[in-house]
UniProtKB/TrEMBL annotation:
Protein's GO biological process: sensory perception of smell; signal transduction
Source taxonomy: Eukaryota, Metazoa, Chordata, Craniata, Vertebrata
Signal sequence, start to end: none
InterPro entries linked to this entry: Olfactory_marker (IPR009103), Olfactory_marker_sf (IPR036727)
Domain of life: Eukaryota
Gene Ontology cellular component list: axon; cytosol; neuronal cell body; nucleus
Protein name per Swiss-Prot or TrEMBL: OMP protein
Amino acid sequence: LKLPFTPDEQLTRCMRLRFQSLQQKNLRPQDGEKLLQPNEQVYRVDFSRQHNLHFLRWDIQLDRPGKVTVTGTSQHWTPDLTHLMNRQLLEPVGIFWKKPGTEELECNEADARELGERVAELAQVRKVMYFLLAFTEGLEPARLRASIVF
């Protein structure tokens, strides 16, 4: 079962508006609130099946060099956009990168596997799961295709 990461444009926009609103009003975020950085975007995975999922692998494709950090969240967002708190970010994160001049994608295997296994556990109680993807070293969201395989 291969489930794609889908950009959640509306949630990303709402989180960016929260950041802008705080800046414009010269206010500080709530204690422990995670604000979306300019290089981050919210993605979602919709689980068509929730039970008996066993993580097999990540299917991450970068069509240029760069790095993407995949952070899962335990947050179940509601339409009123409950603020994301740092304590709701899952550990470990999955870090995937492609070096210039190579076709091979690299990652920290142990962390990526543990994150995948946590996602499989959370899928049992979630129909949707949200992720923060941070793009660095020149990588952009348009250059990524990502799925999780069970």
